[in-house]
């Protein structure tokens, strides 16, 4: 079954929408034009900004110092479209940039020779990279030669995995919730928040500008993959499982229990109007507005920045438990996550050296030390207790599965996200929403 992590986080999509197509070069120097076959310069595009960009600069600093290679780093929020245009026009491409998120593009770019194999980039280091990285990021299920979700085509790898995150975690304020982690989703729903001095069981925030709805999609993804299994879940992503099917409808019905008026802080209007980054704030107020927030590992930075005076510390003031069982134990090992990758578009000596460096434990340890992420390598050291435990979740997963909306055609993704907002607002519209999604699915996958 599909043992894959999503290459692009919903959060990254949300933050990039509406951004400038190209942000000025923001690091170690000069023009981002291609250095043909250079051994001294390498051009790199990334979508990162803020703390993520700073961390990447920290990763690059030892590489530049030890090799003398100058990295020309550009933050490009629209790299996929610009690279696609460059491939079509035959113009210069960056040496190193993320691979595309669309499986059709992955196959197309590989067939055109635009992306070079990681085997070529890493040379004799490839076996070590594969051995040291989470198997779900480097190995197609069942010995298959293709897995477009992780960039494996014809038995070759085209995406170098450098970071991961885990989704579907339930966060809580340790001073409020002092009970035991529930083993099943029914156990979770049975918790009485008033027993712990909280108003409601869950907080939720689905607002994210033009990408509103993606946090809700993460929640239903974790339900479906653990309730009905990885085969149903993968078929759904690929447009082979109708939204009106009993399995997907059950997922929606279960999601609606989380956002019911009885369970969600502030009711549906608050969930719909609250930005995802602020969704957990009521957990840290007195009295607590809610006990739990379902979100990915990245959310911890929002807790800390929203309450600087509390000096919140991971493992002391807040913690998480992994997504509880949906009642089908054979699917308990399905975990939802995403990853960051780099592809090599120009096979130059400098590009190879950079790719080789990013595949090392030393490079990825810098990312981990800067906080806010997991690495792709299994044996990294985590001083943050939250990320250490999240790494254990990723390492013990049977299947690390992609985020559904991120791999659906754009029209399908938009309709899917909107449907979750609509049913949150009006649960009685569920059947009509699912029928509409079937219609969108039929059209979207016919043209994708």
What does the secondary structure layout of this molecule look like, with pairings?
Elements: H1 10-16, E1 41-46, H2 50-67, E2 70-75, H3 79-89, E3 96-97, H4 103-111, H5 118-122, H6 126-132, H7 135-138, E4 152-153, E5 156-157, E6 160-166, E7 169-173, H8 185-190, E8 200-203, H9 214-227, H10 230-237, H11 246-258, H12 267-273, E9 290-295, H13 300-306, E10 318-321, E11 334-344, H14 349-358, H15 361-370, E12 374-375, H16 385-396, E13 399-401, H17 410-425, H18 430-447
Parallel strand pairs: 1-2, 8-9, 11-13
Antiparallel strand pairs: 3-11, 4-5, 6-11, 6-12, 7-9, 7-10
Q: What attributes does this structure have?
A:
alpha/beta, D-Maltodextrin-Binding Protein, domain 2, 5-stranded mixed sheet, 13 strands, 448 residues, single chain, disordered N terminus
Structural class: alpha/beta
Instruction: Give the biggest sheet.
Output: 5 strands, mixed
Average pLDDT rating: 90
| CATH topology call of the largest domain | D-Maltodextrin-Binding Protein, domain 2
Number of strands: 13
What is the CATH C-level name of the largest domain?
A: Alpha Beta
Helix content percent band: 40-55%
What is the first-to-last residue Cα distance? 23 Å
Strand % is: 5-15%
Low-confidence sequence ranges = 1-35
Per CATH, the architecture of the largest domain is: 3-Layer(aba) Sandwich
> How many domain regions?
2
Outline: globular
Total of DSSP H or I helical runs spanning 4+ residues? 18
Radius of gyration: 22 Å
**Looking at this structure, what is the CATH superfamily of the largest domain?**
Periplasmic binding protein-like II
Based on the structure, what is the oligomeric state of the protein chains?
single chain
